[in-house]
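re: ur question from the group chat, yeah i did fold both. here u go
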Amino acid sequence: MPVESIRGRGATRNSTPTRFNLKEREADGDWLDSVEALDGITPRQTTVTIEHPKTILTRNTSPDIGFDRSINVFRGCEHGCIYCFARPTHAFHDLSPGVDFESRLFVKPKAAQLLHSALSRPGYDCAPIAMGTNTDPYQPIEERWRVTRAVLEVLLETRHPFTITTKSDRVLRDLDLLKPAAELGIAAVAISVTSLDPRISRTMEPRAPSGAKRIDAIRQLNAAGVPCYVAIAPVVPQITDHELEAIVEAAAGAKAAGGFYLPVRLPHEVAPLFRAWLADHYPDRAAKVMATIAAMRGGRDNDPNFFSRMQGQGPWADLILTRFAIAAKKHGLPQAKFPLRRDLFRPPEGAQMRLL
């Protein structure tokens, strides 16, 4: 895999996508093939492409996921988390799940209008919509595009239940929408906290807010009456698992409404990217990390099977489960549950959205 500039990025490689019968890029002998050797590797600049999808709601029938519909207003994620299971989706665009995923982004500026249309259809069955299930709805480009905010305005207008999962304290900027939604019982937030150590976060999640900022966001949301949970997701053995108890304690101190954890998953192209990242940043323990992951995944880099993919298996998985349970009991952190009201939903009126 071609080596990329690692400054400010999570992935250290930019592999060619091959899973969807796309033509592999081959060197043709011109001088561009040697440009990196001649001029050095230049930092990759972030670009944003406008996307015009026909629909915005994504459906799933996975039995181990607690929602059947989701919204992702962005493709790709500038946070650059090296372990992100959504990285392989960039291959659909003939782009690399590596550095392309975190630098060549797509935005859906008409997401709110598409949602308005979907909720207006006769016979629409109301159920919670999950946001942030694939890419983060509060990654840096949301500050300019404000697409997530526009979607929240529609959800509040129609009193439609929703959940948000994010790694960013930018969620606080929409507190004026989240608070009234929470008062109606239709909103819940989960903030992912993987590490409280800035040295780890700088390489593992280079463009995401610090763990301390995320804990503070949990505190502010719950103080404002918005139920906010901590998601220790993922737990990376030999890299972040030693922080499990500290994160539980910090989240409980921030009055988190509850918590849960997920072991790291390495589907498809994520596994080789993660291996390359380990070789560059943790060469002293790379083999041990992968051996532990394999022990939790039935001898493989990844377990794609329902239920076990979310829990892991074997002694290592049992140990993490036990440690989390003991820490949660000790610090009074409840199990995460998302009881949201569905009975308040009212379809949009007419072709135009109501003014709040």
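okk and heres the other one u asked abt
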Amino acid sequence: MKALAGVAILIAGALALPAQAAVKDAQPNGFTVENSEWVLVSPQVAYTALVHDVSRWWPADHTWWGDASKLSISDKAGGCFCEINGAQQAWHMTVTFTDPGKLMRMTGGLGPLQGMGLHGALEWRFAEEKGGTRITLWYRAGGYTPDDMSTFAPVVDKVQGLQLAGLAAFLRKDADGAPR
């Protein structure tokens, strides 16, 4: 009986960890990173949380002004993934494609990449899998910089893993805040 309980704990722990995190490619002029998590909610529920609850799952220490409540995502073509803190404002990315419950694509440079003049395509993919949803966060960035962009890839991969883990953790909690 204890052995079965131990296996259950290991399985639960494995489900809570990123199922996949990888630097897909890294070159001096750009890189591609991909992170993936599985959650026990429908793709539509996961998509809705991405858009309407961003302030509740995005890590506050990965915002310009340290307050995730200032974030918003407008899920329409030309929509803004923005951070508004009064007169201080950041347009992080532009929504370029949305298929609710399946895919949201944004373009732009995240964080310090924006100030470096670098640009990227970011996709949030939602696929039904084993009674839940596989969420994949994929980002390809490139452009001119005198720096070797391949050195940025592991850092961006780690940060995006944290962002996706925030969404997954939010989705794994029920209305009372207890883990699902």
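fwiw on the second one: Confidence is low (pLDDT under 50) at residues 1-19. The first strand starts at residue 20 and ends at 27. idk if thats what u expected
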